[in-house]
Write a structure and sequence with these properties.
FAD/NAD(P)-binding domain, binds flavin-adenine dinucleotide, 5-stranded parallel sheet, alpha/beta, 22 strands, binds nicotinamide-adenine-dinucleotide, Enolase-like, domain 1, 3 domains
Amino acid sequence: MSDVYDVIVIGSGPAGYPAAIRAGQNKLKVACIDEWKNFDGSFAFGGTCLNAGCIPSKALLESSELYLRAKEEFATHGIKLGDIQLDLATMQKRRASVVKTMTTGITALFKANGVVGIQGHGKLLPGNKVLVTAADGSEKTLEARNVILASGSTPIRLKSVPHDGKYIIDSWNALELDAVPGRLGVIGAGVIGLELGSVWRRLGSAVTVLEAMDSFLPMADQTIAKEAQRHFKKQGLDIKLGAKVLSAKVSGAAVDVVYSDAQGEHTLQVDKLVVAVGRRPFTDGLLAEGTGVEVDQRGFIQVDEHCRTAVPNVWAVGDVVRGPMLAHKGKEEGCMVADLIAGKYGEVNYKVIPSVIYTAPEIAWVGLTEEQVKASGREYKVGTFPFAASGRARAMEAGAGMAKIISAKDDDEVLGVHVIGPMAGELIGEATLAMEYSASTEDIQRTMHAHPTLSEAIHEAALSVDKKAIDAINR
Ligand code: FAD
Ligand code: NAD
């Protein structure tokens, strides 16, 4: 068999592996190369998302939430349990097994779609060739008509907070802890800080989150962000805003952190310190001299709206290119590129990308925030519905939060949907579909929603936009 492929994908994360599968579905000869190495040295497809991100974090978020509910909520339902104990080893074993099932699933999907999966490091050479270096150091050059770069991202490190993987750790280390830290510090109140801070708080850690910005979740609608901040505070997550970390030093089995805020300089001692201040595109060793692929000042591979690089037939998708670092955004880009290569239609609607923060209550949104709509100058209407008025949410003992819809005054177009509450991440699917179809608020109002479901909150929020909510007082 010749080594000339129609498509070679470098990276098998949620941007790369769907690109390879779609290329296979399009009857293209395709290989997908990855070099991932787990802490135990084992190889797996799936990238950050499956091995060290989305999936393990959601496994632990689920387990830790069940633990907390068993402790604090089950009695409300009339369920009496004995002494509830945490078995962290089993919880972590389950997390690892969920990950393993998903990553081995990719091998099966590759096989079913005719994708050649290759373990090794891929380097783009000039002329659309790819040098593959195997774990044993052996090298092989493959040729491809098209190359898709999907090398992902890696955590940003802070010079003043030197990572050691044991006490000063990143999100991946924080997912694999084998004991609950008594005191956990987190730098960054972003998505990772809030999700992992929640996991370990539920399991018993005293969690302090140090956030450099003065505002909380600035990318979210501020009504929702304020509501979230109130809940997290009540839960005991100590989030310090405007906190600039000056230094962190391991001393014995603890970390001494020095930070400053409007009140002056402070010290904080924790048992583990997670640095979660964002991620940077990962292109180390990816591009040989003279490929012509352009990388911007922040390290992102430069692409157009169809993920084409400056080099013909070299494409880049996922976290390594501009846009939100989200698995589903990478997946859509990967599939788009594989379709374009096959001569089919492909497009990503960057205006309609859902975001979800898997805390409790969960936070999800799609489209514009009220602040963004206001700044655009377009006149708008707002409808909200509290989960406290939802029969299903009450039955679930999950009445905290609300759904909010922002729609245009002129043509009733849905401009943004924001949810904080139970299953917000699932509920946002309906809103995403509505916005993808350019729905009006009236379209949602006239759509029948099953009763009693959480989705009625979206329906009622849409009704509330025109002061027609039935199950809550219109304001
Ligand atoms: P990656 O998943 O980073 O995959 C890149 C792959 O390329 C890796 O396997 C790497 O080994 C390989 N690679 C790189 N260079 C080479 C090379 N030269 N040769 C061979 N292989 C190479 N996003 C969500 O949408 N939802 C979530 O709930 C969510 N939770 C997250 C939780 C955490 C803790 C973290 C860290 C991230 C989370 N994310 C989440 C973000 C999500 O993981 C990323 O957006 C996503 O993984 C990006 O996909 P990707 O394919 O671009 O890159
Ligand atoms: P983030 O950008 O969400 O948050 C980083 C936070 O750290 C920001 O609030 C920032 O102001 C703060 N920060 C930056 N430098 C700081 C400093 N020196 N001191 C204190 N605070 C500082 O990044 P993240 O939480 O690391 O997540 C990385 C990426 O992974 C994100 O792009 C996110 O989209 C993705 N992710 C997504 C999910 C999800 O979709 N549920 C979950 C986890 C991660």
